[in-house]
Amino acid sequence: MLRLGDSIPAGWRWKRLAEIAEFNPSVRCSASNTAVSFVSMADVSEDGDVLGASERSYESVKNGFSGFHENDVLVAKITPCFENGKGSLVRGLPTTVGFGSTEFLVLRAHPQVEPEFLFLHTRTKEFRSLGEANMTGSAGQQRVHTSFIRDWTIALPPADEQRNIVNVLLTWHQAIKAEKALRRRLGSMYKAVSHRLIQARGDQMQQLGQLLVPDKMEPAKPDGPFRALSIRSHGKGAYERIEQLEALESGKTVYRVEPNRFIVNIVFAWEGAAAITSDGDSGCLVSHRFPAFTINEKSIDPEYLRHLIRTEWFRQLLVLASPGGAGRNKTLNRSDLLHFEINVPPLHRQRAIAETLNTLDRQLFLLDRCIAGLVRQRDALATQLLTGRLPVPEAHTPVDRED
């Protein structure tokens, strides 16, 4: 992005956000029983959309909440919501007046500024990353300071150019939104099919201990940066990262991962942090907190098991085998887990189920790649347009802005 003092197109002006927007404007209603929209932090997506709103009386929210009107911009101040992009341009609420969490900073664009243009600047990677670096407060309660946002400086074009830029980027936003909607529908279809095909109870019950055998993992001693394996929560699989040797605690042993193993994070098993390792994971290293199990392939197909461990009822088994309080106190008891029984249909039936679910999985994977590519292109284009490096033809056709 541009820095103050860089060259900008003729007619553009350097402006602090405090010069082009009102911060936390006052909001009032004429009667205490007036219905207003209420937007919680959970109602705002990381994609910049308001997903829902409840209705409350003005009297119940006029004190202790952030007020806003249609076309105001919301920016989440607290970690990790700020870094993750939570915020929105307020559009389409049930009422024109709304209230929400005090963790929202509200910006109201001045008349010469397009609300969408202001909103787009609060979505840029530079704004979010530098805001994160300027957070203050205790761990877990850090917030970006209002002064940072007030002093954030942008290059402001004339109103007609703002509208042209907005129209182009809204086209990309709508394309991404459509792909994400398709992805949600396909994800729901996967869950429905999985729920119908993979049953927790049946005529052929077996203990998990008959299907999973603790693996004697090979200790390793890396002499430099190494490939470490982590497990995502909620059944979202494993991922690899590069770990520095200095990150190893003195005397800590790490173990080499083999492919085609059931592996679990014993600290976050209760969140569904379990996966089946692939050929690509081979050779990665893990700590003792990531035990692996050899799969008895005479009884259960690894691909079928990969889908089984993503079911809600299997996650409940992990919860039951993880006694204790919240967070790191809920450690998985492996012996308890292996004593649970599950339904194990014949292998040919397992393979047919796995193939059906694999087909949906492949479609989800391709959609995820498509969405990621669109987001990268949109962000790169936004950088060029918002800085004036790439002019937009005045004849660009506006898109329908209704969400």
Q: Would you give an account of this structure?
A:
This protein has helices at residues 17-20, 58-61, 115-121, 125-133, 146-151, 159-197, 208-211, 302-308, 312-320, 334-339, 347-386; strands at 13-16, 21-23, 35-39, 54-57, 66-69, 73-76, 87-89, 97-100, 104-109, 135-136, 143-144, 153-156, 205-207, 212-214, 218-220, 226-231, 238-243, 254-256, 261-264, 274-276, 285-286, 292-295, 341-343. It is α+β, with helices and mostly antiparallel strands. The strands form 8 sheets. It has a 4-stranded antiparallel sheet with strand order 2-9-6-7. A 4-stranded mixed sheet has the order 4-3-8-5. A 4-stranded antiparallel sheet has the order 14-22-19-20. Helix 6 (159-197) packs antiparallel against helix 11 (347-386) and helix 8 packs across helix 11. The longest helix is centred in the C-terminal third of the chain and has 40 residues, at 347-386. It is elongated.
Number of strands: 23
Sheet bearing the most strands, described? 4 strands, antiparallel
Strand order of the largest sheet: 2-9-6-7
| Unreliable spans | none
Number of helices: 11
How would you sum up the global shape? elongated
Amount of helix: 25-40%
Straight-line distance between termini = 28 Å
